[in-house]
């Protein structure tokens, strides 16, 4: 089962969900705000895809975090920030079981499910 992680009111998440629905691809949605985040899972994701891909450093949520907390970030400190501020996680995170895809691109989804 494909699991898509994100926040319901995120435009990119809505596009990805709409894309999956339109093609009849069965999936489960996990809303970070409702269902929370899991430290162990975030650690795996961070090590798998890298912090530069997993954390949205261009969004307003990132800028609201004090500068001293954003400096010298490593996996353990990033995980703590993602647990505290789940909106800094780049969305959506598509969990295919054997790998994770971060962000939404029609071309990428087409390659995965086409």
Please describe what this structure looks like.
The model has no long low-confidence stretch (mean pLDDT 95). The protein has helices at 11-22, 32-35, 39-49, 51-54, 60-64, 67-70, 75-84, 106-113; strands spanning 2-6, 27-31, 93-95, 100-102. It has one domain (2-113): Glutaredoxin (3-Layer(aba) Sandwich), CATH 3.40.30. The chain is an alpha+beta fold and 114 residues long. Strand 3 (93-95) and strand 4 (100-102) form a beta hairpin. It has eight helices and four strands, in the order βαβααααααββα. The protein is globular, with a radius of gyration of 14 Å. 20% of the residues are buried.
Quick recap:
The protein is of the alpha+beta class and 114 residues long. The protein has a single domain (2-113), classed as Glutaredoxin (3-Layer(aba) Sandwich), CATH 3.40.30.
List descriptors:
114 residues; alpha+beta
Percent of residues in helices comes to 40-55%
CATH fold-level topology = Glutaredoxin
User: In terms of per-residue confidence, which ranges show pLDDT below 50 for 5 or more consecutive residues?
Assistant: none
Q: From the helix content, strand content and strand pairing, which structural class follows?
A: alpha+beta
- Trace the largest sheet across and list its strands: 2-1-3-4
Shape, please? globular
Number-wise, the strands total 4
Overall mean pLDDT stands at 95
Count of spatially separate domains: 1
- How many individual helices? 8
What share of residues are in beta strands? 5-15%
Q: How do the helices and strands follow one another from N- to C-terminus?
A: EHEHHHHHHEEH
Describe the main β-sheet briefly.
Answer: 4 strands, mixed
Which CATH C-level class is it? Alpha Beta
């Amino acid at each position: 089962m494909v699991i898509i992680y994100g926040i319901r009111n995120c435009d990119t998440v809505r596009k990805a969900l709409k894309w999956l629905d339109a093609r009849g691809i069965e999936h489960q949605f996990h809303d970070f705000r409702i269902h929370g985040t899991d430290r162990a899972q975030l650690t795996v994701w961070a090590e798998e895809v890298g912090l530069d891909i997993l954390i949205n450093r261009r969004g307003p949520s990132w800028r609201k975090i004090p500068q001293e907390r954003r400096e010298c970030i490593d996996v353990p400190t990033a995980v703590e920030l993602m647990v505290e501020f789940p909106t800094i996680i780049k969305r959506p995170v598509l969990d295919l079981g054997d790998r994770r895809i971060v962000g939404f691109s029609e071309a990428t989804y087409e390659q995965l499910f086409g």
